[in-house]
Amino acid sequence: MLRLLSCSKLVTTRHGDSKIGMAFDVMGYEPFQDSFLDDQARERSIDYNLGWFLEPVVRGDYPFSMRSLIGDRLPKFTKEEQEKLASSCDIMGLNYYTSRFSKHIDISSDFTPKLNTDDAYASSETKGSDGNDIGPITGTYWIYMYPKGLTDLLLIMKEKYGNPPIFITENLDDWKRLDYLQRHISAVKDAIDQGADVRGHFTWGLIDNFEWSLGYSSRFGLVYIDKKDGNKRKLKKSAKWFAKFNSVPKRLLKTTNNNATVTVTSVSV
């Protein structure tokens, strides 16, 4: 709540044509099976993941599903705070890596939420009702490659949240990274073709970093840090591909709002 309000305060202090925005760490969701209950579970999962932080800066309050299920445990904004929050961001960032299946959990007094997202009454599953993973498992244990989830989220931003200018601020994985990168750039193109206002795509990251509990064992960088050779920087195959991708002549595709562009090309390394 404090982070959201701090964003609204920046709006009153910005200078000139500066733009203010927030980046949201999000997952995509698919229904566990083709049923009304799991369709609704998917909607709640999105609310508790993306909507939790996005809806206040778009409409001035948390999603209705959160208000109805969490009740008094969810902080309340004053009318003045709601007015400051609504439309307080000019641009949006999405950090996207993977998706999950969303499975309905019956609302019951016997169910005790353990995590802050459990109030959605929807479990997050890596396998669907057919027993298959949502996508190929990658080199990082929690990341399953599912580019369609990125397209879906971008279209949700378009259709539900007023189609704000969007930057993909994090996206990549170390396993089969060329395939991952190409598929997700293609997923962004699919969303742009359908009218999503995507302004840019950033991979994560430039160099290998200390990745939370995985430390240096998970290497997200386009540039490899060789700790056995004086921490020398070495370009990975994906870095060379990305350099070529950004340097060859490209055809720009116009969208319905004439703002976003995407490159269409094929590059091999």
Automatic annotation (TrEMBL):
A GO CC term assigned to this protein in UniProt: chloroplast
Keyword presence, Membrane: no
Catalytic activity: Hydrolysis of terminal, non-reducing beta-D-glucosyl residues with release of beta-D-glucose
PANTHER family: 4-HYDROXY-7-METHOXY-3-OXO-3,4-DIHYDRO-2H-1,4-BENZOXAZIN-2-YL GLUCOSIDE BETA-D-GLUCOSIDASE 1, CHLOROPLASTIC, GLYCOSYL HYDROLASE
Any one GO MF annotation of this record: beta-glucosidase activity
BP-aspect Gene Ontology terms: carbohydrate metabolic process
Protein EC: 3.2.1.21
InterPro entries according to UniProt: GH, Glyco_hydro_1
Chief localisation class: plastid
Localisation per UniProt entry: Plastid, Chloroplast
Domain of life from the UniProt record: Eukaryota
Keywords (A to Z) from UniProt: Chloroplast, Glycosidase, Hydrolase, Plastid, Transit peptide
Protein name: beta-glucosidase
Pfam families registered for this protein in UniProt: Glyco_hydro_1 (PF00232)
Family: Belongs to the glycosyl hydrolase 1 family.
